[in-house]
Specification:
Layout (H helix, E strand, L loop, with lengths): L5 E2 L2 H4 L6 E5 L1 H4 L10 E2 L9 E3 L9 E4 L15 E4 L4 E7 L3 E7 L4 E7 L1 H5 L2 H13 L7 E4 L9 E2 L1 H10 L7 E3 L5 E3 L1 H12 L6 E3 L14 H4 L6 E6 L6
Parallel strand pairs: 4-7, 5-6, 10-14
Antiparallel strand pairs: 1-2, 2-15, 3-4, 6-9, 7-15, 8-9, 8-10, 11-13, 12-13
Helix pairs in contact: 4-6
The structure holds zinc ion (ZN).
Zinc ion binds next to loops.
Length: 247
């Protein structure tokens, strides 16, 4: 596996941050052996002693909080689109093709989150809900949370129709800032900008939010894309976790 098979961001990669993370590409996704709802030890790209957990995603807004150590027999059989943990040695992972993978990290409270957001989850408020959960459960003020928005369908390619636009208008007051109308009832939606605007509305500082400006539909060499391939062939895996052996 080459280092180019995953994408990392400087916001999480500095020596002080003490957090592991990656946004996967299609080269990385092969042979990870990740089973939905089943913790897996030592998958590629992580420490051999660490767990990686990914669960069934349902385009909702519920979060699974992992606040204890994992065991090989653990099974997480519900559906969640956000995974949160304060446990060192657990990488929380989401799988995406065109939806947005979002990684969150609070260096003060030592808690991380991985979020899967398509337009449904974003409009339903999975970003503000997850930030609110981080605050209520772990004392993470939104302004101290670092957020990275990963590769997803870009505004260049992500066409949506009226039913989606109607829901967006109802659920997000600044909808016109994230939509480029095309004039035929359709429009291009900037999902990454929507996620960023929602995080900022909750108080996360613009400088604490990084965006990987790559479109999964444009970059066939790097990413799987449901829209481009017209089916789910495979998904990219993106994850974040606190390393073991600190404090
Ligand atoms: Zn594109």
């Amino acid at each position: 596996m080459t280092s180019a098979s995953v994408i990392t961001v400087p916001a999480f990669a500095d020596a002080e941050s003490q957090v592991r993370h990656f946004f996967g590409t299609r080269r990385h996704a092969m042979d990870l052996g990740l089973e939905v709802g089943v913790p897996r030890r030592g998958i590629a790209g992580t420490a051999s002693s660490s767990w990686t957990l990914s669960v069934k995603q349902v385009h909702g807004t519920e979060a699974l909080v992992v606040d204890r150590a994992l065991a090989p027999t653990d099974r997480f059989l519900g559906g969640w689109d956000a995974l949160v943990t304060d446990q060192p040695g657990i990488m929380v992972a989401v799988r995406t093709a065109d939806c947005v993978p979002i990684l969150m990290y609070d260096p003060k409270r030592r808690v991380v989150a991985a979020v899967h957001a398509g337009w449904r989850g974003a409009v339903a408020g999975i970003i503000p809900k997850t930030l609110a959960l981080l605050e209520s459960r772990f004392g993470s003020r939104p302004e101290q949370v670092r957020i990275s928005i990963g590769p997803s369908a870009g505004v260049c390619c992500y066409e949506v129709d009226e039913p989606v636009l109607d829901r967006l208008c109802q659920g997000f007051s600044d909808w016109n800032k994230v939509v480029s109308p095309r004039g035929d009832g359709k429009a291009h939606l900037d999902l990454k900008a929507l996620v960023k605007a929602q995080a900022q509305a909750l108080g996360t500082a613009p400088k604490s939010i990084t965006t990987v400006n790559l479109c999964t539909i444009c970059h066939e060499d790097l990413f799987f894309s449901y829209r481009r391939e017209r089916k789910v062939n495979d998904t990219m895996v993106s994850a974040i976790g606190l390393p073991m052996g600190r404090g």
